[in-house]
């Protein structure tokens, strides 16, 4: 009897091992696929898409709710509209609306600001902290007829999918109430990747330095993968706030009378913890603009 079992055990073992190998291969597939998206190697130009441009490549770093499908997107020209008070009084709206893809951040409104920020919205990158603001006007943001893509970023504790992620739960509810809404969340791997990019570019560990990445940071990283050309409106450069006679504007164009943008930036830059390193981030953006088709408008950046 015993000898009869031996081949059976051996066979089961072989089957189990093969299954395991198949599974490992399968689960590693995303990383192989992600390679071209994330850049070939971590050499000096590691981030930039020198490789041939593929239309509508699925991006596994962003998955839909509830289906968990990767984000498929491609655009020849993305205009990114910042939420800064710099948008005010520049009349950039018509120019923005002429670009094929228009990206905004968080709950930045268009209504009432059309002349300066435009009317169209293709995609919004949304911080986990802004999700409750969107949900105050769910019909406006997620209602039928609105095909804006929402890409939400946030830390695992709020975005976990096991029922304990408070923001993820809100989004799942919204997706249930508005089945046509196109809501995507940034995966844990992608969040770690964005942290890693910060460390790579600044030499500082994001967590140890007590800072949070900004929505602008996540927006630019996504745009560099999805847009052939990027136009950024209303973003100041890293020396703007040290420039004599700079234009004082509200931090957000839709929050008149709030703290001045530069005051807010300086506060964040020096906060021992919980701040956004906006100024540091801008110096990294300037570096990226040297190897990627990124242009800055209102105010313009002189990139050498
Ligand atoms: C969709 O959103 C835009 C602003 O992003 C808004 O102007 C428009 O009214 C919305 N459409 C619907 C049907 O809610
Ligand atoms: C940064 O902004 C200031 C103020 O707009 C400008 O004077 C300066 O030339 C800019 N620097 C670069 C590198 O664009």
UniProtKB/TrEMBL annotation:
The membrane-spanning stretches of this chain are 7-26
What is this enzyme's catalytic activity, as reactions? a ganglioside GM1b (d18:1(4E)) + CMP-N-acetyl-beta-neuraminate = a ganglioside GD1alpha (d18:1(4E)) + CMP + H(+); 3-O-[alpha-Neu5Ac-(2->3)-beta-D-Gal-(1->3)-alpha-D-GalNAc]-L-Thr-[protein] + CMP-N-acetyl-beta-neuraminate = a 3-O-{alpha-Neu5Ac-(2->3)-beta-D-Gal-(1->3)-[alpha-Neu5Ac-(2->6)]-alpha-D-GalNAc}-L-threonyl-[protein] + CMP + H(+); 3-O-[alpha-Neu5Ac-(2->3)-beta-D-Gal-(1->3)-alpha-D-GalNAc]-L-Ser-[protein] + CMP-N-acetyl-beta-neuraminate = a 3-O-{alpha-Neu5Ac-(2->3)-beta-D-Gal-(1->3)-[alpha-Neu5Ac-(2->6)]-alpha-D-GalNAc}-L-seryl-[protein] + CMP + H(+)
Q: Which GO terms describe its molecular function?
A: alpha-N-acetylgalactosaminide alpha-2,6-sialyltransferase activity; alpha-N-acetylneuraminyl-2,3-beta-galactosyl-1,3-N-acetyl-galactosaminide 6-alpha-sialyltransferase activity
Q: What class of enzyme is it?
A: transferase
Q: Where in the cell is it found?
A: Golgi apparatus membrane
UniProt entry keywords in alphabetical sequence: Disulfide bond, Glycoprotein, Glycosyltransferase, Golgi apparatus, Lipid metabolism, Membrane, Sialic acid, Signal-anchor, Transferase, Transmembrane, Transmembrane helix
Is Transferase tagged as a keyword?
yes
Q: Write down the InterPro entries for this protein, in alphabetical order.
A: Glyco_trans_29, GT29-like_sf
| A GO CC term attached to the entry | Golgi membrane
Q: Which GO terms describe its biological process?
A: ganglioside biosynthetic process; oligosaccharide metabolic process
**Entry's EC annotation:** 2.4.3.7
Associated pathway: Glycolipid biosynthesis; Protein modification; protein glycosylation
Q: What is its main location?
A: Golgi
Q: How does it sit in the membrane?
A: Single-pass type II membrane protein
PANTHER family registered for this protein in UniProt: ALPHA-N-ACETYL-NEURAMINYL-2,3-BETA-GALACTOSYL-1, 3-N-ACETYL-GALACTOSAMINIDE ALPHA-2,6-SIALYLTRANSFERASE-LIKE, ALPHA-N-ACETYLGALACTOSAMINIDE ALPHA-2,6-SIALYLTRANSFERASE 3
Q: Which family does it belong to?
A: Belongs to the glycosyltransferase 29 family.
This one is known as: alpha-N-acetylneuraminyl-2,3-beta-galactosyl-1,3-N-acetylgalactosaminide6-alpha-sialyltransferase
Species annotation? Echeneis naucrates
